[in-house]
Amino acid sequence: MLVLFIWGHMLLESSILISKDAMYRVARFMDGYYVFGADYPFLITCAAGMILTIFIVHAALAMRKFPESYRSYRAFRDHMATFRHNDTSLWWLQVWTGFSLFFLGSVHMIAMMTRPGDIGPYESADRIVSEWMWPVYALLLIAVHLHAGVGIYRLAVKWGLEVGPDPAANLHRLKLARWIIIGFFLLLGFTSLGVYIAIGIEHRDHKGEHYVPSWEHGTIQINEPKQAAAAVPKTSQLAGGES
Amino acid sequence: MNDVAPRRLTLTVFRYDPRAPERTPRMQSYEVEEADGMTLYIALNEIRERLDPSLQFDFVCRAGVCGSCAMLINGRPGLACSTLTKALGPEITLAPLPAFELIADLSVDTGKWMRAMSERLETWIHAREGGIDFARIEERMEPAVAEAIYELDRCIECGCCVAACGTALMREDFVGAVGLNKIARFRLDPRDHRSGNDYFDLIGDDDGVFGCMSLLGCHDVCPKNLPLQTQIAFMRRLMAAEGLKPSLKQGDGK
Description:
Chain A has helices spanning 2-13, 20-30, 33-36, 42-62, 70-83, 86-114, 121-129, 134-159, 167-202, 234-240. By secondary structure, chain A is mainly α. Chain B is an alpha+beta fold. The longest helix of chain B is centred in the last third of the chain and has 17 residues, at 228-244. Classes of the chains: A mainly alpha, B alpha+beta. The A-B interface holds A 64-65, 67-68, 72-73, 75-76, 79-85, 87-88, 91, 154, 157-160, 167, 171 and B 72, 75-76, 95, 98, 164, 166-167, 169-171, 206, 212-217, 219-220, 227, 229-230, 233-234, 236-237.
């Protein structure tokens, strides 16, 4: 469930690669605007709280598998060093990426819970650049996609997902799919982060101003910071409604 | 005739005898000349015959059937008798299998571990009635079922899967792929009348099938190429379904 959420999240946040307006629409959709006719940021708070809860339960269950003593820690480490076996080493990578997600993931989710209204092309870009969240997001991207990609692969192996009649070929396909999925989402994530950083740098002097979609001031905007739309506070755009 | 000069192999071997604790564990190197078709078992015998009669290692069948000569070959569990030296580099490191009680040097007591596992998982036919009657003719079995049982029964209990398992090395109560494979084998057997619930009691916890972290070490090193990953996944699905049943019933669940 968490992996599907992460992948869905990535696809939605990468809407910035299409245009600022596309990302704006996604943000407002997540606020419930297109369902209820008004923004309800607490929906984001609830969603982030739910994901944080699942995340904590997942972490608690996963910790059962951690080495329970220094002796078992040494046994695994020595085994991994001498065996030099890919899937065994990847489990250790999962332990460390999982451990780092305690901090990186929690920071992100708590930020989303406490500031649900600050999601949008300028709002997110300001958070990433002016509030210096880009190092956290860069590390979070690496940790979460390695963890999710290896995790979903392990889940498929654990429960015997068959993608072909031959078990050996099946395993080979799952291993290949694991790296393709990790590579795709890392590429998507870092490209999106790069665009947010570019927007954030461009918008640095207007930090705090909310994004106004092109249809509200009559210009079409396709990710060209030079042609950035005039920005006004979000409260006034909501008061004015869509044209 | 092969004109290429034979390679000189350096075998670095773990040496320690727990019965002589005054001698600390150490690695000792031996040089042997590689011969055509040489296996590690042959190389070790040559060392013992010509260089060091005190070197201890196990073997019985010399044909990959008994599993006695399992050891860590360059850190990877495998059988000495079925590992050709030409498949390895000139520097070879040999160590005893971890997880098992060390007898001396490369020799470990896999039997003690296997017996404990076997007793715990009750890896024998559990007939519901009739008791033991050696005169009784065995029930007929479908050839396909017999084949499937035989496939899993090819396990030689060499211990490679246990030594390759990160979980088994961290948690000594974990039954390992060998134990889970045994349960999969008896579950197939129509002569064994244990129910799904009975099997759940044996392996439906973190020391059993739910403790497996799917590291695939067992699957990748099994000298008999047993389908361990698919069997463990199958048993996991079965035990999960069994665990989710609202009321556990006694009797034949097959």
